[in-house]
Specification:
heterodimer, A: mainly alpha, 14 helices, B: alpha/beta, six-stranded mixed beta sheet, four-stranded antiparallel beta sheet, 11 helices, 14 strands, 37% helix, elongated
Chain lengths: 270, 310
Amino acid sequence: MSRRHIQNVLLKEWALLFTDLNSVLIVTLLPLLIVGQGILYIWLALRFGGEVMLTTPVFQTALQKLIEAIPGLTQLPSEEQLLVLLLSQFNFFLLLIPTMVAISVATFSIVDEKLSGSLEALLATPVKTWELLLGKALAGAIPALVITWLSAGVFLLVISGLGWGDLSGFVVTAGWFLTLFLLTPAVAILSFMLGVTGSSRAKDARSAQNTAVIIILPVLALIGIQIAGILWFTPSLILVLALVIGIADFISLRVAVRLFQRESIVIQWR
Amino acid sequence: MVIIESFGLYRYFGKTTAVEDLTLAVEAGEVLGFLGPNGAGKTTTIRMLAGMIAPTKGYAIVAGHRTDRDVEQLHEVVGILTETPGFYSRLSAKRNLEYFASFYSSIESPSKQVEKYLKLIGLWERCNDRVGTFSKGMKHRLALVRALVHEPKVLFLDEPTAGLDPEAAAEVREMINRLGKEGHTIFLSTHNLNEAEMLCNRIAVIHTRLLALDTPENLRRRFFRRQLIVQLEVPDTQVVQTVRKLPFVQEVHEEGSQLILELTDSERNRPELVQAIVEAGGRVIAVSEKQYPLEEIYFRLLREESGNES
């Protein structure tokens, strides 16, 4: 029964998502904006600050860590090494897509139902709390994930178009794939679980969104740690990170179920 | 067969007592009206019986399931019409109902079941329209179908006609009436006393505690003696004097051209009474039993309750 229930919730959420122009625009345009913005920053950094950046200790340390991870990089001129360093941040930068889509979409998912009164009727059916929450989280996480992968494809096309295609061998590494196909799904599910949890506890969509903004902070921290040269995320490290976040996904579902108080929702929202 | 049974149900919200020591039993196939003023505990009782909130003390068994323990099994066999008929306004009526129907294991084909009920309530023609375009009355009918679609053993209706215009309320009432006649067990919470009288076999009056539970007729007998009204063509003092002398007349008083009487046996003494009036020269237009609206019983119960409290 659980699979059928989760599937029901997921399909209904998709039906609602794709009949709302705002949500469709958020899911499609936001990722393109993130990709475009990232590439623009890299281009601007190279165009106006390339030389200066290479003399900055922070970037020198980061570059050193990158060369330790990819020794073949020493054969490239220093400007191209810097470019590889910047482009290599992009896989973590893409993690912003599911987190930001989660803030925009998941935070409304329960609050909207509370406000419309449909949640009380739903809680009168045999649906279990975990089925409802997981269905809602997956309904957001799956499109966000697909759009993130498409964005990664767009990113590769754009860097080829900009004449940086020769460097893609240094950027699209095992770490890139692990980030995209293991870390990103784990982060997407976690973001949506947290978004849905925030939504279930919030009194309105605005307060749910305010709380959910904190989801972005760990992703920004990952980018910061790497670009500041504190730590370079090697494939094995990314694997460990993905596993840790995968475990966090399960824990977050259990926490979400505990925090979702059916009685309070029924009593307070009528 | 008893299908709803509660044993000393209590529910507190902080220091407020919403429901106190509620013990009742409802037979299968019965339509029970649940009356009480705002804040009397009607919705809380329905929510406890439908397994949506747990009682603080006591327990209830509905359709063979403990409402505080077997919640998922209970939800399979009860339907509830909540006060707010919340739907997904961007989805069609059919899609909305199919979504809710698909959670019940008893429904093999949600779309067929939804089609059957949408046709039943006359909304099939608009099944593909967005619910957001529906009137309030249509949404209420749709919500009733949502509560019914899995053919529950017990149907809880929480103020099903509240806030509806007379036409929409009549449509919903007609549907409840039909369901009652089809043998559904219905637990109907309402403010509308006429509605309760029209639709229900028995009436429960609640004001945190259960004040009364009986048929409307028995409730009347409990509070009012049977009185006969004899409508004369014109007021006639000689007729009144004659009637007073009759041995089976316990009490009589005049109200214009009407005589209001209490007889030893209202059924058997009626022919003799009419004969005596006619023989005394009175012209009888009509003889009827005095009707007490449920409202009077209701207010009397509530007055008694507030008298007890003070």
